[in-house]
Design brief:
By secondary structure, the chain is an alpha/beta fold. The chain has helices at residues 13-25, 49-58, 76-83, 124-134, 152-159, 172-185, 214-226, 244-253; strands spanning 3-10, 30-34, 37-43, 64-71, 87-89, 93-96, 108-111, 142-146, 164-169, 190-194, 205-211, 228-240, 256-264, 267-274.
């Protein structure tokens, strides 16, 4: 999969933060800081005329310079290996590549070898969702991992004793890579499907995990909640803390109760219970 890399040079850190929030709403899924701004990354197919227009409109609000380049798919693995470091969540879950050594005594060791550097889930939002999961009892539960990417969350759910996990993503690379990572971790009970939230129709889950961007969460939340068991749990992430009110309001209007909020470096996660 190809990505566009948008380099933004700004006059202040505050301007960078505002731009990042706005770009994340348009489908940019990863950001890295540079000396005078940041770089943002979006899938080639998602860089539509609508997104281009939104970026142009930002010029009237915030002074910044920008440049754009297309990064070819074949570069991702080398870039990922060069920059990837393991994730240790509360000394309970260790997410690493196969070339990293394991840590003795950590309950859940998850090996991930993605096909690309962006979309790996190696991000604050991954830590947030993992931390939420570690506080849940997933034993014998039926789980859905929406927007599974490399299936980090699906694999952890299986290791935590889930009865079954459905991992769904719209991209073929995610399906293929998920199957590879599931095999690497030697876990069972995970089914990977290519598709979107409409695949939930007619299914029931105890827990749904959705680490996706704000706009997709708002669009698809009704599908998630309709598919939850009457005592179901919904974990959302992939958005900024500024987006908490609109996402919480949407979920609560559909019969959910927010029981926990977490924020890390302005990224956020929400944990909901379905109203009894």
């Amino acid at each position: 999969m190809n990505y566009f890399e948008l380099t933004c040079i700004t006059t202040s850190a505050e301007h960078s933060e505002i731009l990042i929030v706005k770009l994340a709403e348009q489908g940019f899924e990863s950001f890295t800081d540079i000396e005078k701004g940041f770089k943002g990354y979006i899938q080639e197919e998602l860089y539509t005329e609508e997104v281009k227009l939104e970026i142009l409109q930002l010029y009237s609000l915030i002074p910044f310079e920008q440049s754009l380049q297309l990064i070819a798919d074949q570069n991702w693995n080398a870039e990922w290996e060069k920059n990837f470091s393991p994730i240790n969540v509360d000394n309970k879950c260790y997410i690493r590549a196969s070339f990293h050594a394991s840590i003795p005594g950590i309950p859940y060791d998850v090996q991930i070898n993605p096909k690309m550097s962006f979309g790996t889930g190696h991000h604050e939002t991954t830590c947030l969702v993992v931390a939420q999961m570690l506080e849940l009892d997933l034993r014998d539960k039926v789980i859905c991992d929406m927007g599974c990417g490399t299936s980090i969350l699906a694999i952890l759910a299986a290791k935590m004793g889930a009865a079954s996990v459905l991992a769904i993503d719209t991209d073929e690379w995610a399906v293929e890579n998920s199957l590879e990572n599931i095999d690497t971790n030697n876990v069972r009970g995970i089914v990977v499907k290519k598709g979107d939230a409409q695949m939930l129709a007619g299914r029931t889950f105890h827990v749904i995990l959705a680490n996706i961007n704000r706009n997709i969460l708002l669009r698809d939340m009704e599908f998630y909640i309709q598919s939850l068991d009457k005592q179901g749990v919904l974990v959302l992430s992939g958005f900024f803390d500024l987006d908490i009110p609109v996402l919480q309001s949407k979920a609560e209007s559909l019969g959910m109760t927010c029981v926990k909020k977490q924020v890390e470096n302005k990224w956020a996660s929400l944990l909901f219970y379905k109203n009894r």
